[in-house]
Amino acid sequence: MSDMENLLAMGFEQPRAELALKKSGNLQGAIDWLEKNQEKSLDDILAKEADNAAETDPNTEAAALQPGEEAKSLLCNECGRKLRSVAQAEFHASKTGHADFAESTEEIAPLTEEEKKAKLEE
């Protein structure tokens, strides 16, 4: 039985299950994502996705670094996610299977203490 069939058998709606599998890549990740986003309507989730896609179009490649510029973050060219370090990029790659990353001069703001606590609770 496929991951999609399993999610449908559990009673999840097909569009929501498809999005969860797209976001996570596997059954357990999809279940976690669905649980985390169960209070949000599918329309709200899709609207946020559209906003994020407009901000970082994965089809647009990052510009090459100019001489003297320093890479301050990494960008996943497959999903547009910005990552602070090579270690985060490696973790992202292992979780998603993505392998196309580019260096970026855009610096990601450090997490506040509240954001760090929230991340640890997730």
Alpha-carbon Rg, integer: 17 Å
Strand percent estimate: 5-15%
Ends apart, CA distance between termini: 29 Å
- The number of helices is 6
Kindly report the average pLDDT value. 80
Largest sheet: 3 strands, antiparallel
Helix content: 40-55%
The poorly predicted ranges are: none
Give me the count of strands: 3
Shape: globular
Structural class: mainly alpha
**Could you give the order of strands across the largest sheet?**
2-1-3
H-E order: HHHHEEHEH
Number of domains: 2
Brief summary of the model shown:
The protein is mainly alpha-helical. The chain contains 6 helices and 3 strands; from the N terminus they run ααααββαβα.
Describe this structure in words.
The chain is built from six helices and three strands. It is mainly alpha-helical and about 120 residues long. The chain folds into two domains: about 1-40; about 60-110, no CATH class. The chain has a three-stranded antiparallel sheet with strand order 2-1-3. Helix 1 packs across helix 2 and helix 2 crosses helix 3 (about 25-35). The chain is globular. It starts with a helix and ends with a helix. The model has no long low-confidence stretch (mean pLDDT about 80).
